[in-house]
Each structure stands twice: as structure tokens, then as C-alpha cells.
Specification:
The chain has 4 helices and 6 strands, in the order αββαββαββα. The chain has a single domain, classed as Orthogonal Bundle (Arc Repressor Mutant, subunit A). By secondary structure, the chain is of the alpha+beta class. Helix content is 22%, strand content 12%. Keywords: DNA-binding, Nucleus. It is found in: Nucleus.
Length: 165
């Protein structure tokens, strides 16, 4: 098996969506897409709210600002696009309607109604629940990497350094 660098964007994202500590990210029903609650994501992972440490804030939500290099949701979405994720549009609106009460991302009593908002739905064929082995196929689509892929060359991911293993 090819080692996956835990510090690259896809690996961090996969770890976060599978972590029970974060409620702003979750798999869609099929396990083939990513659902993101923007207000809650900004609170938990971008430091746009109370609780700037890896511990529950006053609302009981884990906060871990600094996981990603960005501080804005727009930049996070740009990173998703650079790694080949595409937004799933399910009708006239560009956001997915949330799961409703009891599901933890919107409304409901189990999250105290905090940071309720629409869900953004993204998909990548190489980002699946229970398939971390696919992460090696997620490459940042830089100009140089696009040229290599167009030429049929392999684009290697950076392996973890000795401190990350």
C-alpha cells in the first residue's frame, strides 16, 4: 500500500469527515459525497466563532481552527475544486436541504440549534466512505499536474516524511 501523507488536504478532509468530534462535515447517504454545514464548519474549523482550541466550546461543538491553512470558507471551497471535487446541485437551489431534526447538522435538539444553515454537497470519485485507499488518486490540479496528466504521466503525491509516519 502507498503511504498517504496525513498532512495533505484530502487526508485531513477524510479524517475530519470520519471523526465523531466534528459535526460540520459528514458523508451523504450513499457515502460517495461530502456534506458541509457552512456556518458550523466556520465555527469548528476556521475559527470564525467561539472556542479556538481542540476542545468543545460553550455550545458543545469541537473547535480546531488551523487544521486547514485557510481562514475563509471560500478558500476552502477553492481547495476542494483544486482537488477535483465538484458541487452537487440538486435542483434550482445550489444547496442541499439538511437532514432535519436529530441528525446533528441542522436544527434538532441534539445540537442545540447552533449554526443551523444549508448544506453544501460535494462529490469526487476518489473520496468515498470506507475507501481511504482512493485518496492517493486525489491530486491538486495545478497547471503542471494537469499537463502531466494530459500527457499520460503519473502525478505522485508527496509521501509522509519521517516525522509524520
Amino acid at each position: 500500500p502507498v503511504p498517504i501523507n496525513p498532512n495533505n488536504f484530502p487526508a485531513k478532509l477524510w479524517w475530519l469527515v470520519n471523526s465523531p468530534c466534528f459535526r460540520s462535515l459528514r458523508w451523504d447517504a450513499s457515502g460517495e459525497g461530502l456534506l458541509i454545514n457552512q456556518p458550523l464548519f466556520e465555527c469548528e474549523l476556521l475559527g470564525a466563532g467561539p472556542g479556538h482550541a481542540m476542545q468543545p466550546n460553550s455550545s458543545g461543538v469541537a473547535a480546531a481552527p488551523g487544521v486547514f491553512k485557510t481562514k475563509t470558507f471560500t478558500s476552502f471551497i477553492r481547495q476542494l475544486n483544486l482537488y477535483g471535487f465538484r458541487k452537487v446541485v440538486t435542483g434550482p437551489a445550489s444547496n442541499v436541504v439538511g437532514p432535519g431534526p436529530g441528525q446533528g447538522l441542522e436544527g434538532g435538539e441534539d445540537n442545540g440549534g447552533i449554526c443551523a444553515g444549508p448544506l453544501h454537497h460535494f462529490h469526487s470519485p476518489h473520496f468515498r466512505r470506507d475507501r481511504p485507499d482512493l485518496l492517493i488518486h486525489l491530486k491538486r490540479l495545478t497547471k503542471a499536474n494537469k499537463a502531466k496528466m494530459a500527457a499520460g504521466l503519473d502525478v505522485a503525491s508527496r509521501p509522509p516524511n519521517r516525522f509524520q509516519r
